[in-house]
Amino acid sequence: MTIAAHTLGCKLNYAETSDHLRRLAAEGNTIVDFHQKADLYIINTCTVTAVAEKKCRNAIRQAHHQNPDAQIVVMGCFAQVAEDEIKRMPGVTQVLGNESKRLLSYSGEDRTRTFFKIQDGCDYFCTYCAIPFARGRSRSATIEETLCAARRIADSGAKEVILTGVNTGTFGLHQGETLLELLEKLDTIEGILRYRISSIEPNLLTDDIISFVASSRAFLPHFHIPLQAGSDHVLQLMHRRYDTTLYSSKLQRIKELMPDACIAADVMAGFNGENEEEFRKVLSFIDSLPISYLHVFTYSDRPGTAALRLPEKIPVAVRREHTARLLELSEQKHKEFISSQIGKKRPVLWEATEHDGSMLGWTDNYIRLSRPYSPTLVNTVEEVEIRPENIVRE
Ligand code: SF4
Questions:
Q1: How many separate domains does the chain show?
Q2: Looking at residue 109, what is its pLDDT?
C-alpha cells in the first residue's frame, strides 16, 4: 500500500504521526508525500483554533481530490470533537479519536533531534481551552516504560530529545511518580547528549526542577513556560493556577542559576476582560521579565469552553491589534536576548541537512547558528562563538 500523512497542530501530533508511519513502513508499506496519489491518507488533526479546524477540512478535501478511491483516516483532536461532521465528508473511511493514540511516541525531525511524547491529556480546564475535551484526562506511562522508550531513541542515534506533552508537569501524578524523578533517570541514559522540556506550566515548574536542570548532565538551559496573560485579573478569568508574582519568581530563579538561559512564553491576545488598561499591564509585565521571545496566539471562542459564558468580550479587531503589539514586543525581546549572547561560546548540535553548502544547529540556549557544511560534524556537539555572521534568523 502507498500511504501519505498530513499533520496539523502541535509537536505531540507530529511525534504520533511519525510513530504510525514508522510502524506502517516496517510492515512493508510505502510512505509517499502527502501531495502524491496514495492508497491511504492519514490526517492527524488539531482543534486549537477555528483556523486549525479549517486546515483539517482542507487537508481531507485535498486527499479525496488526489485519489477519490483512497481510504482516508482522520485522527486527533478535531476528529475527537467533531466526529459526526468529519464522517460526513466525502472519502472519509474512518475517524479515530485520541484514545486510539499510543501513550509513548517519538519522531525524528532531522536525525539528530527527536520529539518524545511522555504525557497526554490535561485535567486543568483553563476556561479558554478545548484540549481537555479533545485529548482527555492527564495520563502517562510509568517511569520504567518511559525509560525503555528513551533507550530505543538513544539506540536510533538521536543526540537531542525534546520531551513533549499536553501538560508535562503532571507526568506520573496519577501513579505516585513525579516529573523530577523521570528527569533524574533520563539524565543517566547513555548516548543522549541533550534534553529540552518542550513546555511546562509555571506552577508545576518547581524550584527543585530548576535546580536539577542547572546541575544536570544533559538538560539544557532552555525553558518554555506558558504565561497566557500578564495581568492577575485576566489570569483569574482564565482559571490559570498562578499569578504574575509566582511567574516572575520562577523566571528570576532560572536566571539566578542559569544567566544565559533562553526562556520562551506563550501569550494569548484578546481574552475576555483584557481591555486597554489590562493590556497595558500585560505589556509592561512582559517587558519587565527576562523573557527571550513569545509565542503569541489570538484568542478565539472554542465550543464547549467556560469562556463562552464570560462577559467583556474583546472585539476581534482589537484582538488582532493586541496580537501585533505583542509580536513587536517579542521581536524586541528576542533581539535583546541575542545581543546579550554575542561573543559567548555555546555548545551547538550540528544537524544533517545541507542548506546551500551550510549546516545548521541550535545552541543549548536555543540560538540558531550556521557554518560551512562538514559531514564529519553531523550529529556532534561543538563549542561555537556566537557572532552576528553565524546567527540564522528564522
Ligand atoms: S493547562 Fe490549560 S491551556 Fe494547557 S492544555 Fe490544560 S487546560 Fe489547556
A1: 3
A2: 56
